[in-house]
Amino acid sequence: MDTKIWQGTIRRVLIIKFGAIGDVVMAIPAAYALHLAGAEVHWVGGAAVAPLLGCYPWIRTIVVDDRAILKGSATERVRGLLGLWRTVGWTKYDLCVTLYYDARYRIVMLPIRARRKVILSQTDRARMLLPGRHHTDEYARILLGWQDGERPVGLTPVRAERLPVSPLVRTEGKARVVLAPAGAKNMMRDDALRRWPVENYVALASFLLKRGVEVILAGGPGDMWAVAAFAGLAVTNMTGKLTLPEMLALLEDSDVIVTHDTGPLHMAGITGVGIVSIFGPTDPRGRLPQRADTVALWGGEGFACRPCYDGRDYAPCLHNGCVRQVSVEMVIREVEAVMEQRRSERPMPPRVVTPMSTVVAKL
Predict the structure, then answer these.
(1) CA dihedral 72, 76, 77, 79 (to 10 degrees)
(2) pLDDT of residue 363
(3) Where residue 273 falls among pLDDT bands split at 50, 70, 90?
(4) Phi first, then psi: what are they for 297, rounded to 5°?
(5) Considering Cα of 209, then 267, then 249, then 186, what sign does the dihedral take?
(6) Residues 6+ apart with CB under 8 A from 346
(7) At CA 174, angle to CA 168 and CA 180, rounded to 5?
(8) Most exposed of 179, 227, 240, 281 (fewest Cβ within 10 Å)?
(9) CA dist 210 → 129, 206, 215, 336 (Å)
(10) In whole angstroms, what is the distance from residue 223 CA to residue 225 CA?
(11) Integer distance in angstroms from the first to the last C-alpha of the chain?
(12) pLDDT confidence of 130, banded at 50, 70, 90?
């Protein structure tokens, strides 16, 4: 890809994106395009995503104390910013891109020496993630400085490197399905409207276990609340027990993951595991990993409010009806379809399925 759309060649770029995991994963293909064009890629990331960035040897990860900067006391915020500025302040960059809309992040950019500085904008079309387009392609358009007509289409996820051995030994001949029933939560907010009900995950786990499928629960330390719902089921609980590279290694060694619009979905995209995902208030056409063997079940067909997420807020909602419209039976059908496709070695293109229609819409 041509990175000379900016004035002059980009030799060194600084990306400021502390998290969340999904956004980081969707921005990596654009950073990879810059790397392939010869640019040196530096990335300011929080402690939570640093191990993920470390899976890419071509990224120089600059770990920042994002908790102190975003949620600490005034003293802690100043200390966190000064630590970052001491690390990057002496380096000259051709391009510094801050992948946030919040104007307060301009403070982070202040002492950084860059020929060109870019931050997302709610008013400038050239610097906003346009609705109806995949976030991966939009991040690329912004990072590469492309015009609308030159935007990349269908960029695939960049497979993770430097992965450890899978933390769980597989039983030969036994299918493995990973469930990530929690998530949709980060340091700044809890997006509970994105979650498929945990009781649906329990029903799905029960069905799969009866079919002789190995079922793994996965998630971060903050997802332990969901584990109790699976009491009495012979699932293997790895929630809060894995580093991000170990989670990626587990997914590489599994057949299918079932989850909603959350970090594990996007992590799965940079592995080879089959994906069955559940969407409602967010649009899967902008978030489902653009690779083979990925399916999104998009609930809320016929709802005037769907999708309601505008990039910052959701419409007032008391019942979460769009996500609840996706039944356990629908998910079972898609899990079986993905596993059959993988057994036959006939990859499926990414697709979106709606509950009230048998028509499959390809991305």
Answers:
(1) -160
(2) 44
(3) very high
(4) -95, 110
(5) negative
(6) none
(7) 55
(8) 240
(9) 44, 6, 11, 14
(10) 5
(11) 22
(12) confident
Give the residue carrying structure tokens 């909602």: 317
Report residue 302 as tokens.
């016929």
The yes-or-no verdict on residue 358 having pLDDT over 80 is no
Q: DSSP secondary-structure letter at 136?
A: H
Helix or strand run (H / E) with residue 323: helix 321-324
Provide the β-strand partners of residue 46.
Answer: 64
Query: What is the token pair recorded at 145?
Result: 């400085």
From 87-91, 138-142, 161-165, the region with the lowest mean pLDDT: 87-91
Query: Hey, which bits of the chain come out as E strands?
Result: 12-16, 40-46, 59-64, 92-98, 113-119, 176-180, 214-217, 236-237, 256-260, 274-279, 294-298, 351-353, 360-362
Tokens representing residue 96 in the block: 């510094």
* pLDDT classification of 184: cutoffs 50, 70, 90: low
Quote the radius of gyration of the chain (alpha carbons, Å). Answer: 20
Structure-block tokens of residue 79: 């200390």
Tokens of 117: 């500085």
Range scoring the smallest mean pLDDT among 81-95, 111-125, 255-269, 306-320: 306-320
Domains defined for the chain, CATH in brackets: 12-150 (3.40.50.2000), 176-362 (3.40.50.2000)
DSSP-derived secondary structure letter, 159: P
Residue 106: CB atoms within 10 A of its CB come to: 12
Does 53 have pLDDT greater than 90? yes
**Residues, the chain, total?**
363
